[in-house]
Amino acid sequence: MMNPGYPSPAEALAIASTILLTRYPGASCAFVAGSIMRGQGTYLSDIDLVVVYGHVDAARRESFVMREVPVEAFIHDQETLAWFINEDVRRGRPMVAEGVVIGPASDLAHRLRQNVIGRLAEGPARLTPAALNALRYEITDAVDDLRGDRPASEIIAIGAMLHAKLVELALRGRGRWYGTGKWAPRLLSEADPALSDQFNEAFRVLFIMGKVEPLVVLAEAELAPHGGFLFDGDCRIAPASWRTNTVARTDYL
Fold first, then answer.
1. 86-95 pLDDT, tens digit each
2. What's the chain's Rg over C-alpha atoms?
3. Which of 41, 52, 79, 102 could form a disulfide with 6 if both were Cys (CB 3.0 to 4.6 A apart)?
4. 3-state secondary structure 161-200
């Protein structure tokens, strides 16, 4: 079989083990993750490596190449890792949960992973009414913009923004974890393959043919369980902290 241009999971694991021994010799353990380890690698896919020390002065991320394979390494101790896990859990995709454990302190690594898996199983927090209404308003505004007569460049820009908002509503509205970028269609497909196909078709005809109608139908269907489009009556109060404490200058008058 021809080399597809990226390592197999076994090769990626061997590369990661070498990195841990040579670049991070004092580390307690590490998690090897990423699309290559999931068997979904493509050209220039990288290896994600979460490295855990007993203590670091500050967490950091390093990017480098090993054996012609790009690597992103995230260097932590347990305290800094806990902070980043909180952020990753919020987005529903901690690398620790799916990573393969390497390094001497495997018991520690497995405890960390089980904790994250348990938190993921609880599911995401429900959208607050304020957050839901903000999504409804933003989707409504974007759809209204698309209904007008617009050049292709503006349709693409509006559609790109609207895709992220609609995927967020679709996933969070179903009690699912939400992701951005390449994770958005992956998570949508896992949640509902038929809905994922509807998303793909609606945005395909929007971007290629400039047809808005399938996307409007999709937006209406996703908004319906949450009260539909929202414009009239929308009101959001800015926090009191959104104020610059400056004194007006009058010396130029």
1. 776 766 566 6
2. 23
3. 41
4. HHHHHHHHHHHHCCCCCCCCCCHHHHHHHHHCHHHHHHHH
Tokens of 181: 């970028």
DSSP code at position 123: -
Give residue 183's pLDDT: 82
Pick the closest to residue 170 from 221, 94, 227, 129 (CA basis): 221
Do the beta carbons of residue 190 and residue 106 sit within 8 Å? Answer: no
Q: Which tokens belong to 171?
A: 């996933």
Gap between the Cα atoms of 246 and 141, Å rounded: 33
Pairing of strands 69-76, 47-52: parallel
Q: Which helix (H) or strand (E) holds 54?
A: none
Q: Give tens-digit pLDDT for 23-66.
A: 999 999 999 998 888 887 777 789 999 999 999 999 999 999 99
Whether 236 is covered by a domain: the verdict is no
In a domain, 231, yes or no: no
The answer as to whether 173 is a domain residue is yes
194: containing domain: 129-226
- Total number of domains in the chain: 2
Whether the Cβ atoms of residue 20 and residue 31 lie closer than 8 Å to each other: no
